[in-house]
Amino acid sequence: MNILGVALEVPEPHAEDLRRARESFGDPEARTVPPHVTIVAPVSIDPGQWDEVEHHLEACARSSAPFRMHLRGTGTFRPVTPVVFVAVAEGIPGCEEIERRVRRGPLAIERTFPFHPHVTVALGLDDAALDRAYASLAGYEAIFDVDRIRLYELEEHHWRVRREFPLG
Question: Which residues contact 84 (CB under 8 A, 6 or more apart)?
C-alpha cells in the first residue's frame, strides 16, 4: 500500500516562515510536512490506483479556477483535537470547490471531520506550546495565489510531491 495526500501549497517565502514558526513551537513535523491546506488527509491506496488518482486530479484541476488566498490570524480545534492553525480569511470558496471535486471517484473517502480550510502550525503538542503558537501567530498574514493542486506521497516519513496539477 502507498499513502497519499492532496493539498494546496503555501508558497515561499510564506512556507518557510510557517515552517520556522512550527519548529519553534517544538512540533516534530515542522520539517517533514510542508505548510498546506489539506484537501485529502493521508490515505492508503493500492499501488495500481496511482494512474486513476492522477487522471482524476488532472480533471479536477483543469475545471477549477486559480484564486487568491489570504491567511490571517490563528484558530484552534481544541478541545476536540490539539491543533492550532493559521486561518484562511479569503479563498474559502475556492478551497471548498476543489475539495468537493477531488472527493469523488477514486478519492470519495469518508471524512472524520467536516472540511475546514486551514494551515496547521502546531499539532499534538502540550497546552503551553499550543497556547504559544496561538498567541505568537495571532497577527500573521500572508496573501498569495493558489494555482495548483499537489499530490503527495509519503516516503520514509517525508512527504514528497509526486505531481502538481495546474488549475484552469
Answer: 74, 75, 76, 78, 120, 121, 122, 130, 133, 134, 137
